[in-house]
């Protein structure tokens, strides 16, 4: 099975405001408090002009320019950026957390761990029967950005 998702996670109201300011689709609820804003290639192109970007090692979409934009957006609320790229159980994930205009975690890319570590910074704790923070917030529910956007929840 594949899992290819790129997005932002933050408190629902803050992410709704960020999405509206940037002209992006409304975020999808993950929990009572947190929401996910899937970042499709179209959304990434809308956030940043079509120019050559320098990407962080291990990331497909997190560029220095996007990190600056997210740092600025984090002055009002903590923003967690993440991306997954798995196929047949093999692949990587990456995450970065921006708070108060600064990068406070990552960017970190590895086979496992960065997203759980970043979610923990948002205060997410594993709630059984979930095995980790990733499952606790329901990130396994959909395996690509289109499915998240279509779900509306």
From TrEMBL:
Protein name as catalogued: Uncharacterized protein
Organism (species): Tahibacter harae
């Amino acid at each position: 099975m594949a899992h290819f998702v790129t997005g932002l996670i933050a408190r629902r109201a803050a992410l709704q405001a960020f999405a509206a300011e940037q002209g992006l689709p409304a975020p999808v609820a993950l929990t009572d408090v947190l929401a996910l804003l899937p970042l499709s290639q179209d959304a990434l192109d809308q956030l940043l002009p079509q120019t050559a970007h320098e990407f962080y090692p291990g990331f497909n979409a997190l560029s220095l320019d996007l990190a600056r934009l997210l740092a600025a957006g984090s002055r009002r609320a903590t923003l967690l950026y993440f991306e997954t790229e798995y196929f047949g159980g093999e692949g990587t994930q990456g995450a970065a957390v921006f708070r108060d205009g600064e990068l406070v975690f990552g960017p970190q890319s590895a086979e496992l761990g960065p997203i759980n570590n970043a979610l923990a910074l948002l205060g997410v704790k594993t709630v059984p029967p979930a095995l980790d923070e990733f499952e606790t917030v329901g990130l396994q529910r959909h395996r690509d950005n289109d499915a998240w956007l279509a779900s509306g929840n």
